[in-house]
Amino acid sequence: MLELFGQSAQGFNDWRLCAMTALGTPWLIALTLLLLAALVVSALALRRASLAQRSVLVGLRLLAALLIALLLLEPGIELRATVRERGRLAVLIDASASMAMADGDRTRWQRAADRLAELTPGLQQLSESLDIEYYRFAESALPVAGANAALQLAPTGSRTDLLAALAALAPETGKRPLAAVALISDGADNSGLQGADTERARPVVEALKAPLWALPAGDPKRFRDLAIEEIVADDFAFVRNEIEVEVVVSGHGIDAHSVPVTLRDGGQVIAVANANLDPAQPNARVAFRFTPAATGKKLLVAEVPVLAGEAVIENNQRAFALKVIRDRIRVLQVAGRPSWDERFLRVFLKANPSVDLISFFILRSSSDQSSNSADDLSLIPFPTEELFTRELKTFDVVILQNFNYRPYQMGLYLQNIRDFVVEQGGGLAMVGGDLSFSEAGYADTPVAEVLPVQLGSAPRQYRRAPYRPELTPIGRNHPILDLGRDEVGGVLARLPALDGFNLVSGLTDGAQVLLAHPFERSGHDKAPVVAVREVGRGRSLAVLTDDSWYWSLPDVGGGGRGVAHRQFWANALRWLIRDPALSRLRLESVRRSYDPEAEIELRARAVDAAYRPLAGARVALRLVREQASGEVPVAERSALTDADGEAGLRLPAPGPGNYRASASAVAADGSALGSDDDVFVVGGARPEQTAAWPRPELLAALARMSNGAVVSGGDDVAQLPRRDAHVERISRAKRIPLWDNLWSVLALCLVAGAEWWLRRRWGYA
Amino acid sequence: MLTRRHFNQLLLTGAGALLARTARGEDPINRFTVAQLKHGNGWNPRPTALRRLLWELSKRTSIEVEADARPIDPCDRTLFGLPLAYLAVDGALPPFAPCAQAALRSYLGNGGTLVVDGVNGGRGTPFEHSVRGALADVANGELQPVPRDHVIYKSFYLLDGPAGRSAASPDLDALSVDNRLAIVVSHNDLGGAWARSNLGLWEFEVEPGGAQQRERAFRLGINLVMYALCLDYKEDQVHIPFILKKRRR
């Protein structure tokens, strides 16, 4: 028939009729209705005609209408060349690191190779009608050339993500459909399917539109491991506020019903609790409640003992970072006698909502009249032992204000004050007066070891004569002397002169003078009036006058605003507690956790007094490994900050462990910028080691979702559930119109003409 | 060559050093004292009172004192160097001069404390009327009786109430600024109870309580000083159990 239209069907193997009209459906409907209406009208017009005549005429009109309708549809023939395409069957082989573990005498990788070998004969048969595709997967799926290529490289993937691997196979536009998916894996997913809830896999599995064959490669009965699986804790905690840390312990193949879980901070054990293991529920949760005593960034470690025969020992401990911050600054103010200096400092501290103040003032000394009954007095014993033993560590700052320790038998507690600064990182401020510094006999005591000034033993070092302290170059930029918007030198010049002054014999190592006496000398240098020092983990401040209160009420009397006193002490307090806002150096590890071979990357950022990026600052870095026995120095580096105030520091991989990097920086002009530290972990248990137990039940669940099967060694592959994945695809098509030719026109003319002639002949024209 | 600038610096340095050396010969203790405010109507009716109080203060407490109070005109800005001021009134207190009003307002608002001591006090007396009127110019608010559980009655001694030469009023009156008593008014002539001659004779009889009442007057004076120096220290939590225990005895 095609030859009638001058066409050939060569190269095509299928055809169908088609409508080639460009008219839309609404138009076609409208025209059809019009034709029908015309037919009805014409039929009504032939009412007077005989039945035979009406039948002929209406029949001819109907035929004409049909021809017109056909022509409007533009009928044609579509020739097609169809190709029958083969479906595919995907074989996914788990190449994550957990596959290298041994369950008993064989590794899971060896078992995977065995499963693939079992499958291969059946796959070869199926390859006649299906394309077999091979993929290795871990955190993602990658196609490989064949079965041999799939097993060529050892399994080293860092994560197991079954959902990602399956999602990569899903048929999309252009991809051929799947007949089935063979999944060879230990099931130790540590991405989206880590928990017991497998329902989240359903959308991914159903999108495959193919049954899944599960081929477990692990043997849970032979897997033995005790692991810290997870630690649930906030990133930060408030110092001296109880926090809760939950440790999830998993035990597989463990006979013990209870194992101890230890939580430690460096070498110090915080708590030990027992995890009760139940074979039916391998995860046990242990809650630790403790109260951090000091601020700072910490790496806490939760660990369980290593049992004989464990598959993985790296997962027996896990470190997590905890940043302990303060909610309120706890200050102990001890004053040797009531004074205006003590009073105005107390007013400032009490008014400060971020300060929790504990004060003790010596209202009566042993030399004062005691003829009154003690019941008439509101005095309480000075609790030296309680304050300077048990309670001392609860404070952030200790202020000894014109306080002579000797009458109160406190000599044996001075070591505690020293340790409070050096080891705990507390802040110590000693404020002058006739009962302070050398006058109080602190020379050659443990407290003197941490002060920024050297104390002589000569008597009468306290004097009173007007003087105006001078600003030193270091003091000019020091945050303690940030006394307002105006330049500090100008501010000091307007403040009242001071009277009281404690002369000392010099500075201790590392001390800095912020304000100096204009006339008095300590050795060859001007005697310090305000000096600071970083010592050990803490800081100390010496205010060698008992008249800093002159910067409040007396300053108002002199026309000032009286704010310098509280500004000075607010700054001093923040400096003593190492308020991060005052530090002009920030140190950050690029990552919280590093792979064992990875280089350590740290970034330091320095700012100037106005907190703008500071170039040319020298950053000194020290890296230590924190372990149970203490800190082990690892490396030291230094670097200069660039125009953005940043310095990058790189260190070679230091080996697995928990690390603390500490940095200090000095500006180009020699002024100290502060210090900062950060913590990170190198190595440690990776996800593949933490959640490493085989989970054949997960694979079985995925197979069930897809109406697949769990494949055993003797199963006939040909009998496994499969989907008919063949498709026919039109590779070429051609349309041939049937209407645009002479015959169509002649047919219409013939019918229309016959109707017209008969109508005229019968007198109905 | 020695320039004028260098010469002046040397001169100042030398003068300061000389002053410092001179100062070493002085008493090197930071001693406490009180400002006694002058006013136009007999500002010092009890000349020996404060000296005696200071002496008792030094004897009974750890505070080191100067021998005498310092008389100061309220317009004198050196008042701001003495955060506790005493104002004795015999009869009526005349209104403060404008400069004194401004100075006292600033003084009280920035941490100063004023104790007003009436020789002839009491409710409805010229003393009370004049004091209320004068103080209205230096502080906002009204004088109110001080409750018996206020820390001023336990800042050193545990007291049940006010005392003085007389018992004209059962209460101290006070006005607070920033949650502290900035002005305390005694109607009972505290100074009259404290006053003692150089020969050791009490200058005024204390009625009706005699020697015990005089002792309570000293105790109140010491409490007033301790309150000015330590404010609400005795309200700190650590003191409360001890104080309650003693009060119960």
Oligomer: heterodimer
Rounded radius of gyration of chain A (Å): 45 Å
Number of domains of chain B: 1
The global form of chain B is globular
- CATH hierarchy: architecture of chain B: 3-Layer(aba) Sandwich
Low-confidence region ranges of chain B: 11-25
Q: Tell me the distance between the termini of chain A.
A: 39 Å
Calculate the terminal CA-CA distance of chain B, rounded to whole Å: 80 Å
The number of helical runs of chain B is 7
What is the overall number of helices of chain A?
Answer: 17
CATH superfamily of chain B: Domain of unknown function DUF4159
Beta-strand residue fraction of chain A: 25-35%
Instruction: Give the CATH topology of the largest domain in chain A.
Output: Rossmann fold
Number of domains of chain A: 5
Identify the notable features of this structure and list them briefly.
heterodimer; A: 765 residues; alpha/beta; Rossmann fold; Immunoglobulin-like; 5 domains; 8-stranded mixed sheet; 6-stranded mixed sheet; 39 strands; 23% helix; B: 249 residues; 7 helices
Q: Explain this structure to me?
A:
The complex is a heterodimer of chains A (765) and B (249). Chain A is an alpha/beta fold and 765 residues long. Chain A folds into 5 domains: 2-83 and 732-761, no CATH class; 87-222 and 694-725, von Willebrand factor, type A domain (Rossmann fold); 225-321, Immunoglobulins (Immunoglobulin-like, Sandwich); 330-366 and 377-576, Class I glutamine amidotransferase (GATase) domain (Rossmann fold); 592-682, Immunoglobulin-like, CATH 2.60.40. In chain A, 23% of the residues lie in helices and 34% in strands. Chain A is built from 17 helices and 39 strands. In chain A, strands 19-18-20-21-29-28-27-24 form an 8-stranded mixed beta sheet, with helices on both faces. A 6-stranded mixed beta sheet of chain A has the order 7-6-3-8-9-38, with helices on both faces. In chain A, strand 18 (329-335), helix 7 (340-351) and strand 19 form a beta-alpha-beta unit. In chain A, helix 1 (25-45) runs antiparallel to helix 2 (51-73) and helix 2 packs antiparallel against helix 17 (742-761). The two termini of chain A are 39 Å apart. Chain B is an alpha/beta fold. Chain B has a single domain (31-248), classed as Domain of unknown function DUF4159 (Rossmann fold, 3-Layer(aba) Sandwich). Chain B has a 7-stranded mixed beta sheet with strand order 2-1-3-4-7-6-5. The longest helix of chain B has 21 residues, at 4-24. The model of chain B is unreliable at 11-25 (pLDDT under 50).
